[in-house]
Amino acid sequence: MINNRNDEPKADVIAGRNPVSEAIRSGRPIDKLMIARGEKSGAVVGILAKAKEKQIPVKEVDRTKLDFLSGGAVHQGIIALAAVKEYSTVEEILEYAKSKDEAPFIVVLDEVEDPHNLGAIIRTAECAGIHGIIVPKRRSASLSYTVGKASAGAIEYMRVARVTNIAKLIDELKEQGIWVYGADMNGTDYAQCDFSGACAIVIGNEGKGISRLVREKCDVIVSLPMKGKINSLNASVAAGILMYSAMKNR
Q1: How many C-beta atoms surround the C-beta of residue 14 within 10 A?
Q2: What does the pLDDT look like over 136-161, one tens digit per residue?
Q3: Are β-strands 58-61 and 132-136 bridged in parallel, bridged antiparallel, or unpaired?
Q4: pTM score of the predicted model
Q5: Please, are residues 219 and 127 in contact by the beta-carbon 8 Å criterion?
Q6: Of 132, 125, 116, 112, residue with least CA distance to 154
Q7: How far, in Å, CA of 102 to CA of 166, rounded?
Q8: Which terminus of the chain faces fewer neighbouring Cβ atoms within 10 Å, N or C?
Q9: What is the pLDDT of residues 121-136, one digit of tens each?
């Protein structure tokens, strides 16, 4: 008889107190800890202290959520969501562009939370010659198993960096001479924009778009014309159009 029940945890899920503790101690990239509500005693206290020291986000959830995520494995009230690939740094992305003797070509994601969108963006970015993608540490899809699968393998070739503050990052990119284009409504038609030279394209959250502060930091707001009754595109589709439009200018 074939057993269709998924009893094995996914590759990016680490279940149980000792495995989680060792993963943190070893320096493995951890995106988030999830603990059962009220589970803050014994070994969990020490794990949470390590997580705080390494600035790993912690979220309290119902035990049923942990049961589902761990695929039936014994989780002891705690699991860690680990990245399937190690994150890069912004400096490494800029250095990579320099090593290719090319002006930096970057995508910045302002709270894109759907892992399928992130995976699709990574896939298109790799094809379009993007040097790297930058995401926030919080309120963002992480480099999970689902993202890796949605990227169709492109995650292995794309540098993805995490930063604490996207608005501050934009200031730092501008100091490096990088022109920042934010994708939002009521901006300049993207077809009229010149993306040549060092540039970063900012794509916002699936529902809210880019935040007010991030919008104010951008050098140019670019928009995609909407002819139908729906007034917005999927984040990965909008990102793809802008990446390829920019690629033509480079």
Answers
A1: 23
A2: 988 899 898 889 889 999 999 999 99
A3: unpaired
A4: 0.81
A5: no
A6: 125
A7: 23
A8: N
A9: 999 999 999 999 999 9
